[in-house]
Amino acid sequence: xxxLTSGQWNLVYNVFSFGLVSMLACTVYTLVSQGRVLAxxxxxxxxxxxxxxxxxxxxxxxxxxxxxxxDGMMVKVSGDPGAFNEAYRYVDWLLTVxxxxxxxxxxxxxxxxxxxxxxxxxxxxxxxMIALGYPGEISNDQNTQVMxxxxxxxxxxxxxxxxxxxLGKSLDRQPEGVAATVGRLRLLLIATWGVYPISYILGxxxxxxxxxxxxxxxxxxxADILAKCVFGLTILKIARMKSMAEGMKDDH
Length: 252
Description:
Elements: E1 2-3, H1 6-32, H2 42-69, E2 70-71, E3 74-75, H3 87-108, H4 112-138, H5 142-166, H6 178-193, H7 195-202, H8 210-245
Antiparallel strand pairs: 1-3, 2-3
């Protein structure tokens, strides 16, 4: 059990609530925006909606788990039953992170061979990154935390290489303005993903303190909102730009 101040407890509670409503709002917005892009780009928007819907469901579970693990300002963060369940985040990431990468490829509408090559490299690497991070997240041993943190960084670095080197080769064939926006999209992805290891490091060092718990939960939630909602809205912007460049009239 850890004891939070009233301000800390309310901060975590409100951040989880904000994360939940952000995911739900983005899901609705990207779904109703399907008609604003050409048919070949709608798969990217569908995947964006799936990402935020899956995340919204898991934030609902996280929100409930935090409430159920709380007894006043005291929160049970480890041990069964009734402890705060961090596994919801990792299940969410295992599903949504590969989809995030696939939606980038989908919105670019690359040649089938190129898309297949990128997907077969990025999806397994992203799954490995998440799977290797979880044992360190739930461990109270610092050496174990460091080991799995390093191991999960290896596929992360490989994803960076594919996104910046391999995907970069295809950007010259994109309409004017799209390449620059995709370039910013990749930077957004890396910047937001960079918050996750920072939050992971905040939680290292044995049993969590109140400050560590709050820092990790707030950091992960902010990163999720940026990496899923803001990212999804940028995907919509790219799909709109490409649709307009290919002759779709702006009736909306």
